[in-house]
Amino acid sequence: MASAGVVNIRRDVDDKFYRYRMPVLLTKIEGKGNGIKTVIPNMSDVSRALSRPPTYPTKFFGCELGAQTSFDEKNDRYIVNGAHDATRLRELLDGFIDKFVLCKSCKNPETDLILVKGDIIVRDCKACGKRTDVDMRHKLTTFIVKNPPAKTKKGAKKGKGAHADAGEGRGTESDDELTKKIKAEAADLNEDTALAKEDWSADTSAEAVKARVRALEGSMATASIGGEDDVGSDGDDADSPYGQLGRWVEENRGKEGSVGIYKKIQELGIEKKHKTLLVLVQALFTEDVVDEISKYAPLLAKLVTSEKHQKSLLGGIERLVGLSHPDLLPSVPKVLMALYQVDVIEEEVVTQWGTHVSKKYVDKDTSKRVRKASEPFLKWLEEAEDSEEESDE
Q: Where do Basic and acidic residues bias regions lie (predicted)?
């Protein structure tokens, strides 16, 4: 199957860093004459992003087009009879999202469909807590009542699979080379007078980093402008400081080093905000993220000043590998290793993150996939800790 791009679930939101995203709907025409049909090869992926059964949007297409539909859930085939243009089906998908996904009150797509009194469908919003009615005049409602959504399961158990060697490439030679890169760029930062006052240290030892974190955490409450980050908000406004940062970094990626990027962040007044890392990761890193982490290590060390910042950094990685570059999923252990080696994520934080699925930054299924991919690194951390304890005995 051809790889689909990713778009905002609400396509009226023109923000590349909007939290809720889905794959672009793909279509494939099969057959001829009266037997011609439109197959939607990635309907399961699209529906998963919407937290709806794939039969619902497929049936919605049929209702809107006056066409018969068929589903083969076992073989993951969802079909609408007739030849239908992909653009038209994407427009219809927007209609489905508006009618059966978005909360009528806050327009957030994080909703569940539930049946009230057996035959009334409402959208239960996890974002604002409100329940809003679905227009029961639409033909799809009859299908939903007859085929109600499965109830959400509480607390999934963490699975354990075979673990690869996450420590690959962590030899002395690579560590030395990495240290040289970090110290070289940190030296460049210290030469800059505007940033010299901020005391960028070339010392990247774990003790030094933790000391900086403790010192900076103490001043977070008074140093942050405008108080805490807007929890749960992704800055849908493209003119927000975060939207401006994202666009600027994408336009200047490769042209600016850590100093230039940090100056821009300072200019926007968001150098203390943990959400800055969420946006920065998505805008700055590409499929070469492992190498790029070492390149921008001093910048990350400067911005990551608390556990919240670490979690936001990991949230950005979730979006990067889970949504923007899904081909990077097998490289998640190497990405985490690179972050760990430059001391911007701590063992306790990444272990807690890796063992608790969360819908804060991506949808639940994507969160599961990213954490599943991280297992080799988490296993390596566990074994490394055991080895240290044994050597101390």
A: 162-178
- Provide mean pLDDT across the span 201-229: 40
Number of domains the chain is built from: 2
Looking at the structure, tell me whether residues 106 and 230 fall in a common domain: no
Secondary structure of residue 36 in the 3-state scheme:
coil
Q: What is the pTM of this model?
A: 0.49
The DSSP bridge partners found for residue 115 are 121
CB 135 within 8 A of CB 99: yes
The residues, any chain, with a CB within 8 Å of residue 382's CB and separated by 6 or more, are 351
196 and 327 both lie in a single domain: yes
* Confidence at residue 161, expressed as pLDDT on a 0 to 100 scale: 36
Query: What does the alpha-carbon distance between residue 288 and residue 280 come to, in Å, rounded to a whole number?
Result: 15
DSSP result, 194-257: HHHTT---S---HHHHHHHHHHHHHTHHHHSTTSS--TT-----TTSHHHHHHHHHHHHBTTB-
Q: Residue 94's pLDDT band (boundaries 50, 70, 90)?
A: very high
Q: Does residue 165 lie in a domain region?
A: no
Does the pLDDT of residue 222 top 60, yes or no?
Answer: no
CB count in 10 Å sphere of residue 10: 21
What tens digit of pLDDT does each residue of 250-303 get? 898 888 888 999 999 999 999 999 999 999 999 999 999 999 998 898 899 999
Q: Do 264 and 116 sit in the same domain of this protein?
A: no
The domain of 49 spans: 6-146
Residue 209: inside a domain: yes
Do 104 and 183 lie in a common domain? no
| Secondary structure class of 88 (helix, strand, coil) | helix
Q: Are residues 132 and 245 in the same domain?
A: no
Handedness of CA 95, 99, 103, 106 (dihedral sign): positive
Provide the 10 A C-beta neighbour count for residue 26: 20
